[in-house]
Amino acid sequence: xxxxxxxxxxxxxxAIFKCASxxxxxxxxYNKNKPYNLDFTRMVQWDIEDTAALRQMxxxxxxxxxxxxxxxxxxxxxxxxxCIADYLQKNDAHMIFISTANVFDxxxxxxxxxxxxxxxxxxxxxxxxxxxxxxxxxxxCLIIRIPKIMTQExxxxxxxxxxxxxxxxxxxxTPLNVAEAIVHCIQIKKxxxxxxxxxxxxxxxxxxxxxxxxxxxxxxxxxxxYVDMLNCEITKLQTSEDGNFYFALQSVDNxxxxxxxxxxxxxxxxxx
Length: 272
What we know:
alpha/beta; seven-stranded parallel sheet; three-stranded mixed sheet; 14 strands
């Protein structure tokens, strides 16, 4: 089986490439910086604006599975996904699209499962949902929504003095855990929608404290601050009755139970 990973130079994309390469023939794309920690003989430089190059790459590699962890200009990404959707229909290929918890950023009343209807308010969340709807026209597509991905580099880059909110709760995951779950989904040809997240959630305040970032001044998130963060209209925001904000995913799919991980386990590994 041949797998093409779009955005293999990114945090999640590189983890998927390493994990999937143990079982399959994998190719990956990068834009400017070649990822030398991966098999460079299987790395293809690709500018997201070059749709013709994407078509040629698909023709040359003929992947059975396409995994997208792309970033970049929204309009250019949509153009690429239209090209991919055409390839999927003509070649009976499988697609895995990495989406985000932001498709629920307009509903902060509780964690959200695969059964909930997306309700994005931010530009990013709306874009990701548009991509989901485009790609789900193929019956061989899996939408994977992920929460905040934690790495040691991300933790090290946290700057003291940044606001940390006691009442903002998030679910977490790690690149490796996401990658291992995706390889399993490839093996069973999983389609539909799947949330890959910790089975619980944690407040930003507690997470930072557990990771040794105790120099922050914790405060409460307000609706005004949240709306400003999303750059959206306050009148459309669904808020929780308990005064908390939940940027969290949960799953009702048994697959997620096979890769269960807790926020406590994740943040403890990030302690510095």
